[in-house]
Each structure stands twice: as structure tokens, then as C-alpha cells.
Input
Amino acid sequence: MNWIFDGIGLIGVGCILIAYSFITLGKVTAESINYHLINIAGSILVLISLSWTPNLASIVIEVCWIVIGGYGVYKILKSRKF
Output
């Protein structure tokens, strides 16, 4: 069962690394909603893996990334004209 949570966590880490590398390589900008959504999804997946083997520091950083990413999505959606 542990391997399932490890796999979920690794997929989450992959999402976070892909988003970060895309912004570093100039493929997306910080104003890209996809950048924030990929980071949020990655953090949620890492949190799921942390439910199996909790680590307070890791939980705190992932929750912070979700809050920051959520604010980024809010800011982008607020600036769009519908």
C-alpha cells in the first residue's frame, strides 16, 4: 500500500517540477493560470502522499503552495473580463 502513496507523491513532485521548469524556461509566465493549477495539483498530490507518512514541515510548505497558487488563480480570474 505504501507504494501507492509514494507514487502519488512522485507524480505531485513531477507536476511541481514541470511547472517550475516551464516558468524558468519561459514556456509560461506567472500570469498563466495553467502554471498555478499545475502547482496546486502537484501540492495536493504530495499532501495525499503525506497522509500516509506525515511530515509537518512538508505539510506546511504544501499548504502554503496551495494558498499561494489559489491566490494566483483568483488574481488571474479577477482580472479577466467575462
